[in-house]
Amino acid sequence: MKKPYPRSARLQRRGQFLYVQGNGRKCHARHCLLIFLPNKEPTSRIGITVSKKIDKRAVVRNLIRRRIREAMRDIRDRIRPQSVDLVIIARQSSNGASAQELRIDLESALLKARLIP
User: Fold this and answer.
1) Where in the chain does DSSP place strands (E)?
2) How do residues 46-61 score in pLDDT, each as one tens digit?
3) How far, in Å, CA of 89 to CA of 115, rounded?
4) Which residues pair with 48 in a beta bridge?
C-alpha cells in the first residue's frame, strides 16, 4: 500500500519554495537539482518543480513530477535529520529518464548531501 503524502509533508506556497531556494544548500545530480534547508517543523517537507523548459506539455511535466514523488515516497523515511525542507528541481535530462533512473539519481543526490545514511 502506498504511503500518502499529507499536506504537512509538502511545500505548497511560492514563498516557501523561494525561501528554501534562496537560503538552502544545493546538491547537483544528473537529472535534478536538490536544494535543502533545515526547518522547525516536526517532519520533512518536499517540493517538486518541473518547469516548461523541460517540456511544454503539462502531461509530460506531470509524469516527471509523479515519478519523482514516487521515488521520494520510498526514500523519505530514511532522511536524517527528520526536519528538513527539500526542493527538487527537474533538469532537462529527466524528460527521457525512467522511474528507476530518477530514483537512483535522487538517492545519490541525498547521499551526497548527507541526508540519508
Assistant:
1) 25-28, 32-38, 45-49, 84-90
2) 999 999 999 999 999 9
3) 17
4) 88
The three grid cell numbers given for residue 82, joined into one nine-digit string = 527528520
| Position 1 confidence tier, pLDDT thresholds 50, 70, 90 | low
Count, residues in the chain: 117
The single-letter code of the amino acid at 32 is: C
Domains assigned to the chain? 7-112 (3.30.230.10)
Q: Which residue has the cell 530514483?
A: 103
| Beta carbons of 55 and 93 less than 8 angstroms apart | no
Position 33, amino acid: L
- The Cα–Cα gap between 99 and 108 comes to 14
Residue 106 to residue 100: CA distance in whole angstroms: 10
